[in-house]
Design brief:
The protein has nine helices and two strands; from the N terminus they run H-H-H-H-H-H-H-H-E-E-H. It is mainly α.
């Protein structure tokens, strides 16, 4: 028997985890996908219009809740002394169990985003309620475009000279780096809550959140000390807290800072997923 990976056996593991997922997380998933409906009802009752950026923020909130909740709520029993024995006794390899666990935790926030966006779009079709514009874009760039349209149809033609060059630099340099930051940040968060679900036997989500906040704060403080001590921000006047550089220089420094952050997050993310694999492999009951 192939002890590493077998497609038929993997399919059975997916089916087993799928049934458990629907039983433990199905209702929560439906609620997260339907948050836009709740907000739409509020706009109808209280007669106000909700901007597209706020609606996208609501979808992002649902996405964040999905990442945080799904490991402990759908797979919270896999490391428990009694309930976890069923998982341990599955006739499948550790790799197959690991991939199934990862796929359900990864696809949940993706499903929430697209399902919630679909609900939002259907509600926008209605001639009543407070959803008067479609959310046309995903990501930070799309949010900014929607915001500019709502604030007066601002376009690139309204900018000139250095402002236009800075605008183009943000689009061409900063946004790709930032989009990668969003993706790797999501994978990092998914992996961290997956690992926390395996490390802790109670209060899994709360403990993982506290660790996440602590690690993020520590990394931020260390990077700030390194950057300022080495003069990486020479354009910042610390006495008056003023800025003595043009937009292009600031964009270059911001790009460098985000690139360093992306490298660190990538290394941490890879380490987390390796840790998940070996934690599953060495799990004791």
């Amino acid at each position: 028997m192939n002890n590493t990976f077998n497609i038929n056996r993997f399919g059975k593991v997916l089916a087993f985890d799928g049934r458990k997922y629907i039983s433990n997380f199905g209702l929560t998933l439906a609620i997260l996908c339907g948050l836009s409906l709740v907000m739409w009802i509020l706009t109808l009752v209280f007669n106000f219009t909700m901007p597209t950026m706020s609606r996208w923020g609501l979808i992002y909130f649902a996405l964040s809740l999905a990442i945080i909740m799904v490991p402990a709520k759908a797979f919270g029993d896999i490391n428990l002394s009694r309930e976890g024995v069923k998982f341990a006794m599955l006739p499948a390899s550790n790799l197959e169990k690991y991939l199934s666990y990862f796929l359900f935790c990864l696809l949940t926030p993706v499903v929430v985003v697209f399902a919630a966006w679909g609900v939002d779009s259907l509600l926008t079709l209605l001639p009543f309620g407070g959803f008067d514009r479609y959310i046309r874009h995903f990501g930070i760039a799309g949010m900014l475009q929607d915001f500019l349209m709502e604030m007066g149809e601002l376009t690139e033609n309204d900018l000139s000279g250095e402002d236009y060059e800075a605008f183009q630099k943000v689009k061409d340099v900063i946004l790709p780096v930032y989009n990668y930051r969003v993706i790797i940040g999501m994978l990092f968060s998914i992996g961290l809550f997956m690992l926390g679900n395996l490390l802790f036997k109670s209060h899994k989500t709360v403990k993982t959140l506290l660790i996440m906040i602590g690690v993020s704060y520590a990394i931020t403080m260390v990077l700030q000390v390194v950057f300022f001590s080495r003069g990486i921000f020479p354009w910042m006047n610390t006495e008056s807290m003023g800025i003595s550089a043009d937009a292009g220089q600031i964009i270059d420094y911001a790009n460098g800072a985000m690139t360093v952050s992306n490298v660190i997050n990538t290394i941490l993310t890879i380490g987390i997923y390796i840790g998940i694999f070996f934690k599953l492999k060495t799990q004791k009951y």
